Amino acid sequence: MGHNTKTMEKIFTKHQETIAHKIEPKSQLKNWRDWKWHMRHAIKTIDEFENLTGIQFSAEEKKKFEETQDRFPLSITPYYLSLIKKENFRHDPVYKQAFLDNRELIVANSEMGDPLSEDHDSPVPGITHRYPDRVLLLVSNVCAMYCRHCTRKRKVGDRDSIPDKSQIKEGIQYIKDHPQVRDVLLSGGDPFLLSDDYLDWILTELRAIPHVQVIRIGTRTPVVLPYRITDDLVNMLKKHHPLWINTHFNHPRELTTSAREALTKLADAGIPLGNQSVLLADVNDCPRIMKDLVHKLVMNRVRPYYLYQCDLSEGLSHFRTPVGKGIEIMESLIGHTSGFAVPTYVIDAPGGGGKIPVMPNYIISWSTNKVILRNYEGVITSYQEPDKYESTICDRNCDKCNLELDVAEGDEMNAIGIEQLLSDYDDTISLIPSNNERYERRNEDGQD
Ligand SMILES: *Cc1c(COP(=O)(O)O)cnc(C)c1O
């Protein structure tokens, strides 16, 4: 399909050909490039894994793997499996993300099934409404590969949580009924495992809602099933702009010829691409690996968006790093490389508080007219603040303000949280936890 033989060779290596032939003796390049072939032949058993990789586990270890698999099922695309390097496989970043680890059965202190309370913040099935102006819509619970570090591990392979068409309609209705929702994130599972037509229907329905300004899709197919990014898919997606896509590369090894080709197609269709990595122990917890990853991403027109601290989901303890490791990585990126290659490091607050950005400290001290800062090299500098700054008391009477906001288009929402404390037009002076005893006493005494 328009590729010269040379690129074809790189896409279908000898090693991949061997794997394809073991799966199906007559398979050819055209099968390898067919995403449905990979789905049909996804590796779901330990025996198959051993057979295809040539890796042999001990009987004891296998028994334990089976227990792990009963709890958290296995699924690997032949493509992603082909990226595992057999020598030293136990430390291979692809192997670690794809294959069972018996430590998944350990439930460590403070781990939870649903650490982000996604199910609690769900007004209707399939919708998570956590932030004022955007919602998560789960459209699929199927994935090409089951990432071992999945934050929604509790739902993987769970037949009861497959969203059917009526559930998705309910979700779309919820969005229609909530004019504050201007950004819809399709997630899952992987939305790209739906058929083109079905996804087209969902996107058309969402596009018909006047207040939905942007649609985002989160998918790992460019990483684990790059052949899913077909010309037909891309031509369909193009009809629904503004559409943004976030993908999930964790290691530079994942940016193969096939993956890069998929990214090129998406970028050529005018889709802004972002990447969300998860910081994983023994996979990418290294400043050099991360720098290499972000450089490879931007060379492929993918903007590193978030670096996630690994969530407190059950079975992930062996993947978790201290927060300090993330800060160390951010220290090695900020200033040292292009600003647009630096992701925002976030901790998704357990209990559903949303993403909280964390980074090294750059402000060292402050006076009434000077800020003391340090840069990435350790140079300490001072910024002289303006002698005169006429701060206008903002009453949110934007009609009269000379900053000329088009009030009809401006965001109407009142400030919440810390923004509320900072504002002039709201007289809240403190935020108090709901179970504060001192305040409870006041209420009993009829005060306040
Ligand atoms: C991550 C997330 C979003 C989107 O957050 P952004 O910071 O805008 O990318 C929205 N809803 C939920 C529930 C999320 O977890």
Automatic annotation (TrEMBL):
Domain Radical SAM core: 129-341
Keyword Lyase assigned: no
Keyword 4Fe-4S attributed: yes
Chain sites annotated for binding [4Fe-4S] cluster: C143, C147, C150
Family from the record: Belongs to the radical SAM superfamily. KamA family.
UniProt-recorded name of the protein: L-lysine 2,3-aminomutase
Cofactor: [4Fe-4S] cluster; pyridoxal 5'-phosphate
InterPro entries: Aldolase_TIM, LAM_C_dom, Lys_aminomutase/Glu_NH3_mut, Lysine_aminomutase, rSAM, rSAM_sf
Catalytic activity: L-lysine = (3S)-3,6-diaminohexanoate
Pfam families: LAM_C (PF12544), Radical_SAM (PF04055)
Species name: Geofilum rubicundum JCM 15548
Residues found modified as N6-(pyridoxal phosphate)lysine: K355
Keywords attached to this entry: 4Fe-4S, Iron, Iron-sulfur, Isomerase, Metal-binding, Pyridoxal phosphate, S-adenosyl-L-methionine
Listed PANTHER family: L-LYSINE 2,3-AMINOMUTASE (PTHR30538:SF1), LYSINE 2,3-AMINOMUTASE-RELATED (PTHR30538)
